[in-house]
Amino acid sequence: QQSKRTASRCQFFSRELTEQAREQVYLTTELRRALDSGGLAVHYQPQVDLRSGEWLGYEALVRWHHPKDGWISPGRFIPAAERAGMIHHVGEQVLEQAGRQFRQWRDEGVAPEWLAVNIAAPQMETPGWGEQLLAFLNRFGLAPEDLELEITERLLVERRTEVATELAYLRRHGVRVAVDDFGTGYSSLNYLTELPVDRIKIDRAFIADLTEDPRKVAVVEAIVTLGQRLGIAVLAEGVETEAQRQVLLDVGCRQGQGFLFARPAPA
Ligand code: C2E
Ligand code: MG
Ligand code: MG
Ligand code: MG
């Protein structure tokens, strides 16, 4: 009886594993095809001044439309690409497209102040990555100040020693750094005193029920104060309603991003 139960449980786990492995293989095979055939697109979402509504910057967000499966979200394929060591290629194509687009906006006189790009862990660990990035900007006639790197809090905490050198180098040259998904499960704030950071992006989880939960308001207010004291700009992610915008303004948060202002969209 006992061994039978153990056996069936093993079978259950191995079936799950097989499905995960199949998903991984499928996604990476298809992603390789998309990378080779220009199948990845970039959409942009404005980052705004909460008071005036002025568009300050654009965040570049990768989009993949699969010929059979339709849209595959980055939340699903980015982790698979990271595991397969393919994230460099994704990152390169996003930078290439977004850089070219930003250049065009600049030429047309409609570019906002900055272009924000999401960076995954393994991208930053390639030796000489910072130098390559500066050369890339130069090729498009963009200044380091035009680019903001969005790096998740998880990466900043877990890979601090690996990313610190490259980040410091880039920041010395003027590239900006934003902490993405701030406040999601990491108690260490020490990295904020040691790593160069220009902007904190408060995770959507704090904004979603801001108007119903006074404790969320307290946390957001504390993050805004922290930013003010450290000289770091604070931006709220996932602002969807006018009521949320009002609470954010009440606690002194000046910048936001979300469906209330604009959904991510093609150039
Ligand atoms: P993120 O960088 O935190 O991006 C914000 C996500 O929230 C985006 O999802 C955006 O579409 C969504 N969003 C924006 N405003 C709202 C709102 O008001 N309400 C709600 N519910 N959602 C909102 P998306 O595009 O699916 O991207 C998910 C994550 O995938 C990103 O989170 C980022 O971590 C990653 N990602 C996206 N593009 C890239 C990329 O080019 N490179 C890398 N390494 N990661 C990327
Ligand atoms: Mg981001
Ligand atoms: Mg985020
Ligand atoms: Mg996020």
TrEMBL record:
<protein>
    <submittedName>
        <fullName>Diguanylate cyclase/phosphodiesterase</fullName>
    </submittedName>
</protein>
<feature type="domain" description="EAL">
    <location>
        <begin position="24"/>
        <end position="267"/>
    </location>
</feature>
